[in-house]
Amino acid sequence: QVEPFVAGxxxxxxxxxxxxxxxxxxxxxxxxxxxxxxxxxxxxxIVDFFTLTFGITFVGLMEAIIVGYVVKPRNLRNYINExxxxxxxxxxxxxIMVVTPIILGISFIGGFIKVVxxxxxxxxxxxxxxxxxxxxxxxxxxxxxxxxxxxxxx
Length: 154
Prior knowledge:
Layout: H1 3-13, H2 17-32, H3 40-71, H4 73-83, H5 90-118, H6 126-147
C-alpha cells in the first residue's frame, strides 16, 4: 500500500499529497522494476527472506524488550484493560518480558547462524551480503528519516 507511506511524509513534513504521491509512486516503480526481470522471482525471494527472517523478527524483539523493560508492561496492560473489552492478566507481562523475547531471540540468532554458516538456500554467497546490506539500508533510512526535522507538534 502506498497510503501509509505517503501519510507519513504528509504528517512529518506537512507536504501536499499532490507532491508526495507522484514521487512515492515513481520511486516505488523504479525499485520494483528489478522484480519484473527474469530473475525477479529470485529477487523477491531474497528480499522477502531477509526482511522477514531478520528485519521483522528484530523489530519485534526490540519492541518486546522496550515494552517489557522500559515502558513496563503493567502500565500498558492497565491502559489496555481500561479501553478494551478483553482483559489482560499478569500472564501478559510474563509473555512480553520473558516468552516473546526468548522465542524471537532464538529465532533471530538461529536464523542468523544458519544463514552465515550455510548461506540462504542454494543462492551464491553474495546474496547474504545483498540481504544483510538491504537490512542495514532499511534500518539506516528509518533512523535518517526519523532524525530529519519535521513540523513541530503541539
